[in-house]
Design brief:
6% of the residues lie in helices and 32% in strands. The chain has a 5-stranded antiparallel β-sheet with strand order 6-5-7-8-11, with no helix packed on it. A 3-stranded antiparallel β-sheet has the order 1-3-2, with no helix packed on it. It has helices at 132-136, 170-174, 241-245, and strands at 2-4, 21-25, 28-31, 33-41, 51-61, 71-79, 96-106, 112-118, 144-148, 185-195, 213-216. The chain has 246 residues and is mostly beta strands. The radius of gyration is 25 Å and the shape is extended. The protein has 3 helices and 11 strands.
């Protein structure tokens, strides 16, 4: 993302911050910008009717003389009733897990079956909420959204993102605050990063990677890998007498 400039060296620039980017080459400024990718996760865990659970980790303090320990952790589980309950801004010092469960399906010991979203490195937009680009990209206002399944709601930025006024986005749909508990639901996760360009990005930007995980949480009764046989014959245990004697 570049623009032209009259500068061909940084010694001509009195206030570098007013470039709003980095001088990448003679007469070329790489403009500061963001990259976002929103993943549409139609989660049918053990069936179509699921619930979103925010598992918030809290510090619990001990009372005097109760224990040498001063604090420990507990998990507070909150089942989202409506869409606004499930809007999440990730916070390092307010940690949570994000589960999609099937409340009607239980493990042997009674936990609801589920999967959890494990976010990777991401970013939050710094633009004003009423700035036209932000209104079109309002799906970046939160990192996680949950909506009831609707066939017409497939694209977080609407059908015509670049020409829209922000009236057909995930943020607009979610304002209806529809019921999502024990429903056919969709989770939306937005992954992104801020990009202050550097000369190594020009003229062809190298790959920048990030990721997230979907992991089972009480979906199996125990670790599912325990009974899986080795993939290759050489990995099989050696049981002949000569080998054991050696």
């Amino acid at each position: 993302m570049v623009k032209g400039t009259s500068y061909d060296n940084m010694n001509q620039v009195n206030q570098p911050e007013n470039l709003y980017g980095t001088l990448l080459s003679e007469n070329v400024v790489g403009v500061i910008h963001d990259h976002y990718i929103t993943f549409y996760l139609d989660m049918d865990v053990d069936g179509p009717d699921n619930s979103f659970v925010k598992v918030n980790l809290k510090q619990e303090t001990t009372s005097p003389e109760e224990s040498p320990r001063l604090s420990y952790l507990k998990a507070v589980r909150n089942v989202a009733k409506t869409e606004k309950d499930a809007q999440v801004k990730l916070k390092l010092y307010d940690p949570s897990e994000y589960h999609i469960i099937n409340p009607s399906k239980k493990t042997r010991v009674g936990n609801p079956t589920g999967y959890k979203l494990v976010p990777g490195g991401t970013a939050a937009s710094l633009l004003d909420l009423d700035d036209p680009p932000q209104k079109r990209g309002a799906f970046t206002n939160n990192q996680i959204w949950v909506t009831p399944y609707n066939k017409s709601e497939e694209w977080a930025g609407g059908l015509f993102t670049y020409q829209s006024h922000g009236d057909d986005t995930l943020a607009v749909w979610s304002e209806r605050d529809r019921a999502i508990e024990n429903k056919d639901i969709v989770m939306w996760y937005t992954l992104g990063f801020h990009h202050v360009p550097c000369q190594e990005d020009y003229p062809i930007m190298p790959t920048v990677s990030s990721s997230f995980d979907l992991k089972p949480v009480n979906f199996y009764n125990s670790n599912p890998i325990l009974n899986i046989p080795p993939h290759f014959e050489k990995d099989l245990p050696v049981c002949n007498a000569a080998a054991s004697a050696a």
